[in-house]
Amino acid sequence: MAFDLSMIKALYERFPQRVKAARSAVGRPLTLSEKILYTHLWSGTPETAFKRGEDYVDFAPDRIACQDATAQMALLQFMQAGKEKVAVPTTVHCDHLIQAKNGAKSDLQSALNSSNEVFNFLESVSNKYGIGFWAPGAGIIHQVVLENYAFPGGMMIGTDSHTVNAGGLGMLAIGVGGADAVDVMAGMAWELKFPKLIGVRLTGKISGWTAPKDVILKVAELLTVKGGTGAIVEYFGPGALSLSCTGKGTICNMGAEIGATTSTFGYDESMERYLRATDRDEVADLANTIKEDLTADPEVYANPEAYFDQIIDIDLSTLKPQLNGPFTPDLATEVGTMTQKAQDNDWPLKVEWGLIGSCTNSSYEDLSRAASIAQQALDKKLKTKAEFGINPGSEQVRYTAERDGLLSIFEQLDAKIFTNACGPCIGQWARYEDPKNAPKNSIVHSFNRNFAKRADGNPNTHAFVASPELTAAIAIAGRLDFNPLTDTLINEDGQEVMLDEPTGWELPPKGFEVQDNGYIAPEEDGSHVNVSVAVDSDRLQLLDPFTPIANESVQNMNLLIKAKGKCTTDHISMAGPWLRYRGHLDNIANNTLIGAVNAFNEKTNFVKNQLTGEYGGVPDTQRDYKKNGIMTMVVGDHNYGEGSSREHAAMQPRHLGVAAVLVKSFARIHETNLKKQGMLALTFNNEADYDKIQEDDKLSLVDIADFSPGRALTLQLTHADGTTEEIKVNHSYNAQQIEWFKYGSALNLIKEQNHA
């Protein structure tokens, strides 16, 4: 069944005319990314060209998707916006709050028992405001979106960084914070700095052990975790045409790990096949009527250097399988070269788990290719050395894979079939009783993110990212340096055997099937629905508007923490067990910056309280400052806020009394989230000034009264010995964003405008 068909039809009807107008305004042929951007302008028909990386532009996305952990805060904010119904098609997906432990049936029931209050809240809010609701167990948000909502040429936003999975169906799908989603839900424009464009030209054809996953693992190595910041990655070339739709989704999905705004592919036959296989013939038929506009103009791909800001070339015929990690998704190791590298870095060569699935590699195709390797373990009498864990992407994928015998192959190897959910990928995997003191070990997974403590909460778990097929092979071998292209294994009969190349199906030969996909449609009129939140709940808390930060409050600020090195949203607001508090701002604020490394003592969650001179936890120290009416500043390193879209990483410091965050550079989503919550997101004009900030400094933005677009601010440092010095700090605020700061948050401004 095709959702939102009338919306898609209306977009496609105006698409060619707007593309033509954009081509005229820009004065040259257009990339696919530009076509989608210009056809989704809030102002309607394009009349002017925008400067990449400079101009802030208002857009009108077609739809919104929210996962349950972030949806809580997004919907709590939307409830304050004064609207009766969402302005664009919106869905909520319950996939993050399900802990993986014993297997699907018991884990799902456990989640229903422990998080019932939250699920009921999300369902009732969805019903009240016209939002589609996907119940616990229905599937991982991004796979469900690909199967049901994504369409070529569309633009969507989602409150999860891996929203970009929908790029596999030719969308611009962009991860945002909940406050951005609220803007669009409320019928307002969504603002984005017009992205730069990175083109990835794919030649050749994938074969053997190489998989689509290896493409993005290679791109991550080339661009690093911040190399895509502020840019859209557009894949093209004959190699792109050879990939399946879900393979394209895999590549786009993990584009979040290079910081890219989003990633996409042009519409082709693989997308049409996938649309028809997922019961969306009408969408495929409509797309075929304008297919020349659902990819770049021919001149672009013929001479891409003239149209993209950067070009990367990858020959799929020579690309080798990759293993990326540990602790960062951009550290690539080509299969067959791991042994020495692992020994040099003291990475455990023994592999204890192989995990297959997640939002990026949980399609039927992925499971079928991994199952072909698992079947060989049975056929060739190989005893698997590591444990298997399987996370199907959706109930439709799970049901179909079970029907076709794929899951039973893994079950014969004693695999745990987890819920159609995110658990092992996001720190919701109960692998250890005491994860903080768990042993050093290695695991391999087909997920995307592998920061420390992410999978199982164990800081000593070395997680490596690989394709589902390579993950299966390494799990069977039990060694990180196993190379299935050349290495043999000893079976139970003492014979040397080799694994054959993986095989699989792009789409299920007998078609997809499902009994209950888990979707609950909202009532036509939900005005009668009562949304209640218990006053004494420790899971949910209604929001109070933030008070604007006064100019005098940013004088003589205390330094809360000077973070050293990598400080992701996981460091600022951890997931794992803290997910239970995603709907309760005050409770979850107790994890604020507890993972950040203090530059002055190299410890986590251990900072100096300038009021007492004693050291303690970051949240406790900040609460003491707040109690005494003192606002603070956080100082950070490069790519601060890398990782997920979670706005809690901005809301928590704001709630506790942090006024400003000053860093060498920001990850895109986090910088926006700080702005949305009425905070100051600042960058060093001179990165070396980071070293000037001392532990006992008083920090003053002396010219905050002159806060205006394009004008640097002056930060005065008053050191403990009474000496002072001034440094310049930059910002990227435009006039509207400065209004957010003046009103205390973007939401405060929305409420004011709705009441006007």
What are the SSEs and their pairings?
Elements: H1 5-26, H2 32-39, E1 56-59, E2 63-67, H3 68-78, E3 90-93, H4 104-114, H5 116-129, E4 132-134, H6 141-148, E5 155-158, E6 172-175, H7 178-185, E7 190-193, E8 196-203, H8 212-223, E9 231-236, H9 238-241, H10 245-253, E10 262-265, H11 269-277, H12 281-289, H13 298-302, E11 310-315, E12 322-324, E13 332-334, H14 338-345, E14 351-357, H15 364-379, E15 387-391, H16 395-403, H17 406-411, E16 416-417, E17 441-445, E18 461-465, H18 468-477, E19 489-490, E20 496-497, E21 519-520, E22 557-562, H19 569-572, H20 585-588, E23 607-608, E24 615-616, H21 618-627, E25 632-636, H22 648-656, E26 658-663, H23 668-676, E27 680-684, E28 698-701, E29 713-718, E30 724-730, H24 735-743, H25 746-755
Helix pairs in contact: 1-2, 1-12, 3-5, 3-7, 8-10, 11-12, 15-18, 24-25
Characterization of this structure:
- With 756 residues, the chain is of the alpha/beta class.
- Among the domains are: 322-428 and 438-497, Aconitase, domain 3 (2-Layer Sandwich), CATH 3.30.499; 551-755, Alpha-Beta Barrel (Aconitase, domain 4).
- 31% of the residues lie in helices and 17% in strands.
- It has 25 helices and 30 strands.
- The strands form 8 sheets. The protein has a 7-stranded mixed barrel with strand order 22-25-26-27-30-29-28. A 6-stranded mixed sheet has the order 6-5-2-3-4-21, with helices on one face. A 5-stranded parallel sheet has the order 16-15-14-17-18.
- Strand 29 and strand 30 (724-730) form a beta hairpin.
- The two termini are 41 Å apart.
- The model has no long low-confidence stretch (mean pLDDT 96).
